[in-house]
Each structure stands twice: as C-alpha cells, then as structure tokens.
C-alpha cells in the first residue's frame, strides 16, 4: 500500500483510485505531509492526492470558546500543516462558510485559490468536533500541475466563444470576463481560463451559465448551468407570460384563492418546508428562514419547472405530457433542493457533480414523499413526478429511482458513465444507490450480484443530508460521494452494518468494492500469539474432510442475511436466494484463487467433491510439510476480533489447529489473514470439528466475515448465516 508509513494507518477500504504501486516517489511530498500527524488515515485518493483524510489532525479551542468573528480563523494555523496533504498551500485556501451540526461538530469550507485566482470547484472541508479535535478533512481541492498561465486570448474573443458554447438563443454576456483556474473533467492539469457569464434562453426556458474558455488557446472548456430544470423532453415556444415573479396571489397568512394551481402549490411549498424543518431541523433553503417564492401559470401549456436562483417557477403543463407542475410535491421538493444544494455543497451542474446535484434533488423528493406517509417505501416514493406526468398514462413517471433505465435514458451503472452524459441521466446512478440503501435488494438489471441490506428511508435520508451539507464539495465525483456518504454514516454514529450497507449500495452500481471482500494477505511479520485457553494440536485431515448432516442453526436466526457473492456448485452458479429456494445443501465453502478470479464462492455438497476439486487444482492439503522448503516457511494465519483486521488477534502456524478456539475466542472472529505457507486455513462452525467449513486458499484474506455465509436447510428453517462471530475451530494444513 502506497499510504503505509510511519504513523500512518493504511487505507482500510481501498478504492479503485488508490495507487497500487509501492515505493514511488511521486507521492513522497504527500506522505511526508501525512507523517506530521500522530494519526492520519487516507480514505480515498485521486491523481496521487488524497481526497479524504481522517484521524488526529490537530486541535483548536472547543466550540464553546469560539467567538463569531473568528469563524474560519481558528483553524488557519493548522491549515498550513494540513494543506500539503492535498498538495495545497494554507495561504491558497479562502474561508467560505462553516456549519454547526446537531452533534456540535463544525464543518468549515475553504475555497481553493491558485496564483491569487479562484480554482473552480476546488473546495476543502475541515471537520472539528465539539471538543476542538480536527478529525477529518476532505474535498475536491487539490494541487497539481498547471497546463499554462499565459493569457493569449482576449476577453472579447473568449466572450464570443462562450456565447456560442452556451447554446443559448438569444444569448448575451453578463458582466466582464474573469480569470480563473479550472481543471476540466478527467484532466489532471489546471487550465487558466476566462469565466464568462452568459444568460439567455435555451430549450424553452431561461438560461444562466458560467462558461469557461481556455485563456491560452480559446478552446471551450466547460459550461456550468446555474438554472436547474426538471427534465423537459420537448421544446415549447409559447411567447406570453414570462415576467417573474408576476402578480402576488397568495402569501403566508392569506386565504385560499380558489385557483387550484395557486392553492395546491401553496400547500406543496408548506409540505416541502415542513419536511426539511421536521426531519433535518432546516429552516428553509438557506437555513435562515428565507421566504419561499414561487410563480405558477408560467407561460402557456408550459411543461417544466425550475429554480432560477431566487425562486421557483412552474408551468401549467400541456395536459398530455404533464398536468400542472406546481401541484406536485416531487417537483417542488426537487427544485427547492437545488436551492439547498446551492447553499451547501454547491455541486457544479456539469459532469459527475452535476449528476449528483440532480440526484440529490430527486432523492429529497423521495425522502419528503416518504416522510408525508410515515416513512413509506412504496413504489411511488421512488418514482419522480408520477402524479403529474402523462395524465393519460397511469403508473408511469418522469424518472424511476429504483430502476433508472426504465425512462429510456438514465444510467444505473457507473462504468457506463462518460463525461458527456446529461446530468439528468447520470443522476440515475446515485438515485439507485439511495433506493438500494433505503429499501434493500440488488441491482434491478443484475449488473452486479451484491445484496444491500435495507436501512430504511429515514436513516438513508440523514446520511445523504449530512453528505450534501457537510461533506460534498463543488466538484465531488461519484467515487468521492461514496466515501463521503460512508463517512456521513460514521459521523452520525451509525453502526458498521449501516456503513456496510452504504458501501454495498455504491458497489451495487459499480462504485468501489463491496463491504466484505477477499484480498491477498499483506506482507506481515506478526510474532506468534497463541490463544491463552486452548491448545494447538495436529488435526487429522479426515476430521475436517467430513460430510456433516444438515442441521438447524446453532443460535438465533439472522433475518434477511444473504451473502453477496453468487455460489458456484458443480459448474452451476446460484444466487444465495436461488440456493435457498432449491434447498441445495453444502458442507464445504471455498474461497481461493479461482473463487477470486470468478468472483464467486465455491460450494461443495460432499467432501468427495471437494477432494476432487483440490486434486485437480493442485491444492490437496497435507498434515505434514511435503518439502524442506515448506517446512521452513513459518508465516502464521492471524485471526482478528473485528472486521478489517482490527482489535485483538491470535495466530496459528501451518500444520496445527484448534479443535476449539477456547472460551475467549469462541464466536468472536471477524476477519482473517490466511498464511502464505499453509495450503488452506480452515474455519469450522462448531466446537470439536463439527458443522460446516469455510476453506480459505493459500495467502488469501477475508476483511470481513460478515459478508460470507453458510446455508442451513433444516426442515422449514431454510436460512443463511454469516460466518461473523461464528467460528469455533481453526485448522491450517501444509
Ligand atoms: Ca414520487
Ligand atoms: Ca402518468
Ligand atoms: Ca467479532
Ligand atoms: Ca460457533
Ligand atoms: Zn433538477
């Protein structure tokens, strides 16, 4: 691991972006910056620079001793040490805002500058607990190479490029062009750019864009829209009734007007306000009681709604594609949430962060609908706009969070994402994450086989709210959002099962690995550490290559537990659910090189089947070393109390075992490093070598036994059980 070093805890859940090469010098500066902290754990890396670090990052006065005018300044001294971790300089970070959450933690946001100019989307968040411990820092601010700092393009030329680049018609430039730095999506280098604000009309609605043009060669780099609309599949050109906000029809103390669009919109605004206030204690979109202004009857037969930066705007619909949009809670919460996002994470409405921004609006539409019905999880909660969309067609919706591709355009799998994907379509990726997290289940089209355990809408809501208010930054990507939501769950004090569900929900859509995985055993020199109240003995193979009768679970039934990976039995692949439905009884479960290659657990009904497999793959175990070289190999397997190789541990050398791990260790093991010297490290379910067996192949490790299971098919009790806290015997063979 590139991030292992003195005083640095290795990344416990490596992401796809974590560098795999060791000993390279390209991250030496980052490592030495990390080494300045007593304890610093890197949770995610992009382009060799961390985007999430937690640990003991320093101390500032507790929140009770803080004076308002010091906002942001109390961590200033500490930033000089922290900034180099992100390849930044403390002086380049400009305070934007801080928020205080209900646990008394402060989250301070700093905007990145470079050579005195703002870096678009670059923001660092510093997290401080109520006692003043700086326990985490994350964000999309990161230093790195700069493509060019020459200005060779005149601002007037940039403005022309910007106007055509915005695709608005008509379009006009608002204000002077400004110099900024921008890192185009998918690129490592910062480009010096002209930022041009272009307003006008596009696709039948007002547009207001920040357009970026390369100052060196005049190339259009990015368009960041500032007006967020519901999706409109058709362009309408009605030309009347566009002045905003129009005539005031009803205010807070006013009586119903008799105009159903006005009155129902008034009620939907109330529902949206109450949802945010009751569930998240948020006072309006700015959390400072801002008046909710909306305009209905916008234009004629207009099939759209949007937030324009100050107010909500709704059309009446055309009666075919949609009915009156202001009557709908989904549309109202969706648009209002754009205003919340703008005040908090400020996710840029372009690229991955744009999909995330759009998704957050859909997610909160689902959350508030669920809340109005006592945290319901029915189908309508996860449909967007179903009440106003296509009045002539029952059951359909504008978007489907639980099966995003049902609308014909949205994505449901991150590997399908490309930088050109429309934000209203890439939103499907995180919409599905939220749905799986809230409701549980698997990918609707079987893109992955990962099962997500439901945590309910309310907890999922709190996680996404915390992520959007305290952790996301303007250019947060989907992989960064995974880390942010995991850490939101941790910061909220949720248990590890909940965090695993977050991890698995992202893994299910192709972002990151599932919570439980097998991986090669790291190089380790652990001194022998025997179990205090048990005796190591040589255990005959015949006592492990057994055919246990099917039997009932040994203790409580674990409701709804299903292992993530499919099970391969005699060349046929089953999901855990199928195996249960068909009542296929297995005695032995194998995780080895081949399992890793095929991404399956291999199941064997009899010890004879297992032995055939072991012979055919040259993995037949032996009670004695079969060569001098083997006999000299002495790496032990290590058994840990907690997942991710944490907590207390004991070791067992090759060739020996414990028919009973003893009272202190019985039903306690949660993760395992398998020895590279042993052909197999075998875990047994029962005391004195009974029950089912889990065979771990040479040199493989399991970070979390919770994800692996065995099936018991006794009478009507057909259930899966996790190996976590279940192991009673362990044996290593040569
Ligand atoms: Ca709905
Ligand atoms: Ca419909
Ligand atoms: Ca345990
Ligand atoms: Ca047991
Ligand atoms: Zn939107």
From TrEMBL:
Keywords of the record: Hydrolase, Metal-binding, Metalloprotease, Protease, Signal, Zinc
GO molecular function, one term: metal ion binding
Keyword S-adenosyl-L-methionine appears in the UniProt entry: no
Pfam family, one: Peptidase_M4_C
One Gene Ontology biological process: proteolysis
Region (Disordered): 238-262
Peptidase M4 domain: residues covered: 234-342
UniProt domain Peptidase M4 C-terminal: residue ranges: 345-511
Annotated catalytic residues: 335, 424
InterPro entries: FTP_domain, Peptidase_M4, Peptidase_M4/M1_CTD_sf, Peptidase_M4_C_domain, Peptidase_M4_domain, Zinc_Metalloprotease_M4
The FTP domain, residue ranges: 92-140
Family assignment from sequence similarity: Belongs to the peptidase M4 family.
Name of protein: Peptidase M4
């Amino acid at each position: 691991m590139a991030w292992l070093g003195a005083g640095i805890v290795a990344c416990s859940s490596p992401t796809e972006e974590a560098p795999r090469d060791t000993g390279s010098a390209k991250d030496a500066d980052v490592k030495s910056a990390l080494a300045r902290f007593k304890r610093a754990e890197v949770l995610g890396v992009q382009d060799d620079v961390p985007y999430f670090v937690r640990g003991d990052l320093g101390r500032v006065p507790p929140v009770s001793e803080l004076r308002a005018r010091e906002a942001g300044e109390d961590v200033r001294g500490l930033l000089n040490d922290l900034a180099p971790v992100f390849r930044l300089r403390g002086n380049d970070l400009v305070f934007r805002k801080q928020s205080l959450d209900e646990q008394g933690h402060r989250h301070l946001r700093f905007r990145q500058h470079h050579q005195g100019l703002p870096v678009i989307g670059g923001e660092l968040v510093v997290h401080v607990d109520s006692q003043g411990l700086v326990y985490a820092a994350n964000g999309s601010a990161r230093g790195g190479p700069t493509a060019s700092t020459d200005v060779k393009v005149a601002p007037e030329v940039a403005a022309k490029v910007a106007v055509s680049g915005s695709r608005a018609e008509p379009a006009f430039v608002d204000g002077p062009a400004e110099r900024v730095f921008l890192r185009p999506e998918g690129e490592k280098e910062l480009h010096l750019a002209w930022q041009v604000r272009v307003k006008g009309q596009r696709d039948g609605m007002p547009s207001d864009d920040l357009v970026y043009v390369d100052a060196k060669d005049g190339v259009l780099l990015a368009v960041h829209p500032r007006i967020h609309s519901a999706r409109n599949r058709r362009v309408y050109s009605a030309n009347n009734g566009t002045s905003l906000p129009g005539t005031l029809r009803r205010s807070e103390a006013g009586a119903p007007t008799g105009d159903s669009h006005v009155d129902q919109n008034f009620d939907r605004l109330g529902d949206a306000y109450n949802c945010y206030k009751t569930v998240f204690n948020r006072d309006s979109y700015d959390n400072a009681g801002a008046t909710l202004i909306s305009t209905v009857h916008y234009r004629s037969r207009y099939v759209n709604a949007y937030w324009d930066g100050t107010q909500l705007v709704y059309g009446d619909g055309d009666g075919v594609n949609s009915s009156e949009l202001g009557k709908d809670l989904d549309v109202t919460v969706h648009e209002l949430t754009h205003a919340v996002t703008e005040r908090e994470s400020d996710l840029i409405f372009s690229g991955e962060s744009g999909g995330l921004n759009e998704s957050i609006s859909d997610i909160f539409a689902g959350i508030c609908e669920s809340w109005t019905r006592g945290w319901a999880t029915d189908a309508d909660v996860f449909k967007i706009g179903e009440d106003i969309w296509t009045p002539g067609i029952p059951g359909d919706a504008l978007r489907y969070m639980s099966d995003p591709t049902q609308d014909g355009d949205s994505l449901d799998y991150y590997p399908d994402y490309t930088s050109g994907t429309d934000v209203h379509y890439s939103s499907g990726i995180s919409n599905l994450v939220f749905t799986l997290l809230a409701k549980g289940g698997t990918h609707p089209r079987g893109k992955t086989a990962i099962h997500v355990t439901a945590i309910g809408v309310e907890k999922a809501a709190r996680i996404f709210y915390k992520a959007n208010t305290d952790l996301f930054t303007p250019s947060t990507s989907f992989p960064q959002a995974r880390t942010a939501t995991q850490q939101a769950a941790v910061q909220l004090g949720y248990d590890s099962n909940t965090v695993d569900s977050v991890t698995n929900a992202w893994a299910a859509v192709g972002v990151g690995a599932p919570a439980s995985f097998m991986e090669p055993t790291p190089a380790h020199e652990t001194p022998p550490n025997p179990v205090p109240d048990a005796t190591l003995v040589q255990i005959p193979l015949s006592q492990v290559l057994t055919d246990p009768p099917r039997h009932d679970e040994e203790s409580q039934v674990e409701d709804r537990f299903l292992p993530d990976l499919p099970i391969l039995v005699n060349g046929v692949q089953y999901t855990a659910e199928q195996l249960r439905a068909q009542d296929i009884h297995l005695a032995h479960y194998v995780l080895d090189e081949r399992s890793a290659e095929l991404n399956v657990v291999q199941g064997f009904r009899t010890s004879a089947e297992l032995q055939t497999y072991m012979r055919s793959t040259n993995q037949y175990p032996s009670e004695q070393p079969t060569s001098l070289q083997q006999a000299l190999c002495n790496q032990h397997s290590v058994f840990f109390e907690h997942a991710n190789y944490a907590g207390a541990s004991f070791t067992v050398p090759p060739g020996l075992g414990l028919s009973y791990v003893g009272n202190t260790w019985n039903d306690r093991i949660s993760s395992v490093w398998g020895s590279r010297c042993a052909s197999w490290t075998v875990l047994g379910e029962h005391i004195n070598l009974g029950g089912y067996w889990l065979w771990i192949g040479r040199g493989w490790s399991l970070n979390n036994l919770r994800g692996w299971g065995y099936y018991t098919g006794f009478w009507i009790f057909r259930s899966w059980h996790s190996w976590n806290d279940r192991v009673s015997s362990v044996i290593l063979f040569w």
